Inverse folding.
C-alpha cells in the first residue's frame, strides 16, 4: 500500500502539469457506427446483482432509514432519494431488468453525506464512509442473511409510475446516435482459457464517491492550496484503498470457490467404483469454474464546479481539484489491474484480458455530465441554470461548507419549497440532479456503455 501511496502522489503531481488539457476535455457524441446503440448485447436472462457504494447521488433510502425518516425530508424528496423521483440506481436497475426473466438484485450501501475517507472534518461520523460501506458488503458475503437496510436491497422488477414517466424522452446528436455517449465497452465473453465455466451471471460493482470530501471544505479553506491538495490526495488514496480491498476479496472468493470445486473432484478413498470422480495430478489448475463474472466500475467525480451550490468565487479551484483527482484515479487503476490480473482499461472490459471473470474500469461520468450540461435543450430541459428546491433562509448562511448547507436544505425543505415542474429542471436542489436528469445523463449512458439495451 505504501507503493500505491507513492504512485498516487506522483499521479497527483503529474495531473497538475496536464490540467489544462483535462479541463478542456469534453465528451463528444458518438456516431451510430461507434455508439452503444449499435450493440446487440443486452441484459441476459441470467442473474444480475448490482452493488453500489457511494454518497447522496446514489442513496436509495439508507440515510432516510438511519435518521428515521428525517433526512432527506419526505415533504420535498422522493422516498429517501435526494431527488425529485427515482435516482440513477433505480433507473439502472429497471434498465437491467428490461426484457429479462430473471430478477435483478440491487445491494445499495450508499449513504447521503458519505465520504471516501473516514472522519473528514465537518462530516457526521455516524454516516458510513466508503471503507465502512465495503465492510458492510464483505460482512454480508461472509455472514448468512446479513444485508443492507431494507431500502437498500430490492428486486428490479419493482415498478413505479415515476419510473415509467420518462420512457421515450432522450436526446440525439447530429448523426442520430445517443447524445453524450461513448462507444459501448466490448462484452466480456468467456475465452478458451477463461475459468468462468460459461456462467452468464454477473455482479456489477459501482463505486461513486468523493464529492463530500471536497464539498466539506469551508469556503475560506479553498484559498489554501495545501488544504485542497491534502483533501484531494487523501480522498483519492481512500478510494484506491477500497478498490484494492474489494479486488482482493473478489480474488480470494474465486480462489476459495476453485478450491472447493477441486475438493469435490477428489477421489473417494473408500470407493472401488472406477467411475468415481478423480482429479489427476497436475489437473488442479484446469478445473472449470462456474460462478458470476465480477465487473468493478469506478465512476470518477462529477463536475462539482457546475453545481449551483458552489459559490462563484471558488468554482475554478473546485474544477481544478476535481480534475486533479480524476486524473490520479485513472492512473491508479493500471497497477490494480496488473496486481489482480483484471481486464479493463482503454477499450473496455476485454482490453488486456488476463481472465474472463474479473474486470476493472473507469466510467467517465464527469465527461458525460459536462456534455449533458452543454446540451440541455436537446434533452428537453427548459431550466438548466436554476434549481427546483429553494430554502433561502438556509442557503444564504455564510461561513459553512457547501456540504453543510445542503445537509440543512435536505432536512428542512418542504413541499412549499419545491417548484411546480421539476421535470423541466436539470437540478432538483442546488447539488443533486432531478430524476429525469439522472435517467438521461447518468443511467442511460452508463447502461449503453455496459452494452445493455434500453427498452
Amino acid at each position: 500500500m505504501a507503493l500505491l501511496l507513492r504512485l498516487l502522489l506522483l499521479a497527483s503531481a503529474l495531473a497538475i502539469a496536464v490540467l489544462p488539457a483535462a479541463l478542456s476535455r469534453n465528451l463528444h457524441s458518438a456516431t451510430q457506427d461507434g455508439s452503444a446503440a449499435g450493440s446487440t448485447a443486452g441484459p441476459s436472462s441470467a442473474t444480475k446483482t448490482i452493488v453500489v457504494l457511494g454518497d447522496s447521488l446514489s442513496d436509495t433510502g439508507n440515510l432516510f432509514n438511519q435518521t428515521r425518516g428525517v433526512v432527506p425530508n419526505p415533504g420535498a424528496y422522493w422516498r429517501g432519494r435526494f431527488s425529485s423521483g427515482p435516482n440513477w440506481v433505480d433507473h439502472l436497475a429497471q434498465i437491467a431488468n428490461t426484457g429479462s426473466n430473471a430478477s435483478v438484485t440491487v445491494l445499495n450501501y450508499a449513504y447521503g453525506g458519505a465520504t471516501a475517507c473516514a472522519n473528514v472534518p465537518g462530516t457526521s461520523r455516524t454516516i458510513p464512509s466508503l471503507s465502512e460501506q465495503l465492510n458492510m458488503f464483505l460482512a454480508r458475503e461472509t455472514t448468512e442473511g446479513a444485508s443492507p437496510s431494507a431500502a437498500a436491497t430490492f428486486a428490479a422488477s419493482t415498478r413505479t409510475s415515476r419510473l415509467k414517466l420518462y420512457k421515450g424522452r432522450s436526446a440525439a446528436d447530429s448523426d442520430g446516435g445517443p447524445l453524450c455517449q461513448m462507444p459501448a465497452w466490448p462484452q466480456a465473453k468467456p475465452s478458451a482459457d477463461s475459468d468462468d465455466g460459461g456462467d452468464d451471471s454477473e455482479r456489477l460493482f459501482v463505486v461513486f464517491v468523493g464529492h463530500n470530501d471536497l464539498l466539506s471544505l469551508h469556503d475560506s479553506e479553498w484559498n489554501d492550496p495545501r488544504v485542497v491538495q491534502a483533501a484531494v490526495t487523501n480522498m483519492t488514496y481512500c478510494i484506491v484503498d477500497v478498490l484494492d480491498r474489494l479486488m482482493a476479496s473478489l480474488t480470494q472468493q474465486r480462489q476459495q470457490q476453485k478450491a472447493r470445486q477441486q475438493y469435490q473432484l477428489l477421489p473417494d478413498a473408500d470407493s472401488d467404483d472406477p467411475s468415481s470422480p478423480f482429479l489427476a495430478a497436475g489437473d488442479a489448475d484446469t478445473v472449470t469454474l462456474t460462478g458470476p463474472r465480477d465487473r468493478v466500475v469506478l465512476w470518477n467525480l462529477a463536475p462539482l464546479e457546475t453545481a449551483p451550490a458552489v459559490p462563484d468565487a471558488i468554482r475554478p479551484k473546485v474544477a481544478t481539484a476535481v480534475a486533479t483527482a480524476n486524473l490520479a484515479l485513472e492512473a491508479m487503476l493500471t497497477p490494480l489491474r496488473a496486481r489482480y490480473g483484471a481486464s479493463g482499461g482503454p477499450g473496455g472490459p476485454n482490453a488486456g484480458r488476463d481472465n474472463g471473470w474479473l474486470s476493472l474500469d473507469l466510467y467517465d461520468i464527469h465527461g458525460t455530465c459536462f456534455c449533458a450540461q452543454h446540451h440541455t435543450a436537446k434533452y428537453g430541459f427548459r431550466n438548466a441554470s436554476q434549481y427546483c428546491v429553494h430554502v433561502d433562509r438556509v442557503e444564504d448562511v455564510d461561513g459553512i461548507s457547501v456540504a453543510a448547507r445542503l445537509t440543512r436544505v435536505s432536512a428542512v425543505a418542504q413541499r412549499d419549497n419545491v417548484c411546480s415542474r421539476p421535470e423541466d429542471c436539470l437540478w432538483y436542489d442546488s447539488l443533486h440532479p432531478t430524476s429525469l436528469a439522472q435517467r438521461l445523463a447518468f443511467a442511460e449512458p452508463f447502461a449503453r456503455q455496459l452494452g445493455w439495451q434500453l427498452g
